[in-house]
Amino acid sequence: MDPQTATLLPVEGASADAARVDDADTPLLGTQAPLFHSRRDFCVTACQALSLAAVAATIQACGGGGGNPNESGGNPLPLLSSLNATVVNGAATLTVAGTALASTNGAAMVSTPNFGQVLVVRTDAASVSVMTATCTHQQCTITGFENGVFQCPCHGSRFNTTGGVVRGPATASLRRFNATITGDTLSITA
After folding, report:
1. In which domain, by residue range, is 130 found?
2. CA triplet 98, 124, 163: central angle to 5 degrees?
3. DSSP conformation letters of 156-173
4. Which stretches within the chain are classed as H helix?
5. How far is CA 71 from CA 48, 49, 150, 151, 152, in A?
6. Is the pTM of this model over 0.90?
7. How many CB atoms sit inside 10 A of residue 189's CB?
8. Which of 6, 37, 83, 138 is the most exposed place for a label (fewest CB within 10 A)?
9. Is the pLDDT at 174 greater than 90, yes or no?
10. Residue 77 sits in the same domain as residue 57
C-alpha cells in the first residue's frame, strides 16, 4: 500500500447504498484517499515533526531525558542543611556549634544578608571553604552535598569543596569568599 494514501472501507454491517455519498468531492468507500491533500499539508506536518524532534534533542542535551541528575548510585544526594548568618562589622557571621559545620567535612547552605546564599564546608578544625550557591551553568541554586562534592539539582553540575568544576555542564568555577573560623564563630567577607 502506498504510504501517502489510505483506503476507505465500508463500515461493517452497512448496506452497499450507504457506501455511496452524494458529495462529488468525497471519495467512495473502498477507494484510495490521499493522506496529504496538498503540498501545504505535507509541509506543515513535516515542520511539526521536525520541531518536536528539535525540542526532544534540546531537552536531552540539558539533561532532561536521563532521569534525575541529582542521583548518585540510585539515591538522591542529601540536601544541605540551611543556616542563617547575621552581619557584624560588614562580615556575615554565624555560630557553628551544634550545626553541620561543627565538625570536619560538614557542609551547609548559609543565607547571608550581604552575599546571598553561600555554600560552606568545614575542611578541617580551623578552616572552612565558602563559595556562592549559584551554579555557573544556568544560575540554579546548588542544594546537594555528598562525599566532598556539591551538586546542582537542575542539570547535575558538580563542584568540589573549593568551587572547582568536577562535572559539567557548568564550565566555570564557583565564586569564592574569604572566611575565618575562630572558636565557634564563622566570619565570611568578600
Report:
1. 72-189
2. 100
3. --EEETTS-EEESS--SP
4. 39-61
5. 34, 32, 12, 10, 11
6. no
7. 15
8. 37
9. yes
10. no
Q: Are strands 81-84 and 107-112 parallel, antiparallel or unpaired?
A: parallel
Match 555542564 to its residue by C-alpha cell: 169
**Would you say residue 90 has pLDDT above 70?**
yes
Query: Among 1-10, 65-74, 156-165, which is the least confidently predicted range?
Result: 65-74
In the chain, the number of structural domains is 2
User: Is the same domain home to 28 and 111?
Assistant: no
Question: What residues pair up with 108 in beta bridges, in sequence order?
Answer: 81, 120
Please report whether residue 41 resides in a domain.
yes
Residues 180 and 155 in one domain: yes
Task: Reply yes or no on whether the pLDDT at 4 is more than 80.
Answer: no
Asked if 31 and 8 touch (Cβ cutoff 8 Å), the reply is yes
